[in-house]
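Much of what follows relies on a compact textual record of a protein's fold. An example makes this concrete, so a full record is given next.
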Amino acid sequence: MAIKILENIEIKKNKLKENFEMDVLAGLSAENKCIPSKYFYDENGSHLFSKITDVDEYYLTASEENILRKYNHEISERLGNNRRFNLIELGVGDGRKTKILLRNFIENNVDFEYISIDISESAVTELDQGLLSEFPELAHTGVVGEYLDAIDWIKDNKQGTNVVLFLGSSIGNFNEESALVFLRALWKHLNNGDYLLIGFDLKKDITVLNKAYSDSQGVTQAFNFNMLSRINRELGGTFDINKFMHHGIYNPITGAMESYLLAKEAQSVYIEALEKSFDFKEFEAIHLEYSYKYLVEDITRLAEKSGYKIASNLYDDHNYFTDSIWQVVK
């Protein structure tokens, strides 16, 4: 196993901090306050999200795990197809779902190398160490860098078909326009015949959706509050999380779950790194996340518009979720 770093880590850390500062400044200065959802995932946020995946109401992780186990032979046969390939994962989580695939491929004697990509060196290193002990026979390279830069490096340094993993409902954090831009950019950096295995959360009973994003144990609430705690820790913010409440609701017009933090009272919050105070009215909202839900025709439209053909849609037992296998067409 090996780790490849594409960018100077200290320069990268400084750039990420500056981006965080500017996004918070822009978001809290807007008429409708917002903070991009990508800032959920510091170390504490990632830990809290891992806890969310074990909550009964949060069906998404269990649904996708069901798919990966249920269709393990079909996935192995379609992607393996008696040829070596690179299994490339965008973003490094706890590896829980990925390990189902890795175990299946190893047991089915599939010829592949697993390549994980993340901007966090610590996340890549931690995953690498865990895989070494659990799958000592696994060929694994961790790449620290931006997704598209890393894919270009893989194309220049690795042989075989590329199979990109974009698991979970990560694509749901993009609106349709942004999703098309991302998927087309990915298409541009891949070769004809390469594959994308991508997860989509499907539209369903709204009660199921609302419960999943406002769980009874309050883990989702803690996950959202961590955004304010992160601003306090890293930017010298003075948010009092006891003066905010979590609100998650499905919007049938946009087709998305929407997550907000609402100010319980009028207040002013100072952020040292920005040398600026931000005023909140009573019940004023900070928007944190969209999580779009899909019909099959939505998925088909995204694939066709961004240059892929759908090889297969794989569903869990409740038809709550699909892992869709797309092939690049050029």
Summary: The mean pLDDT is 94. The first helix runs from residue 9 to 29. The longest strand covers residues 244-251. Residues 170 and 209 are 16 Å apart (CA to CA).
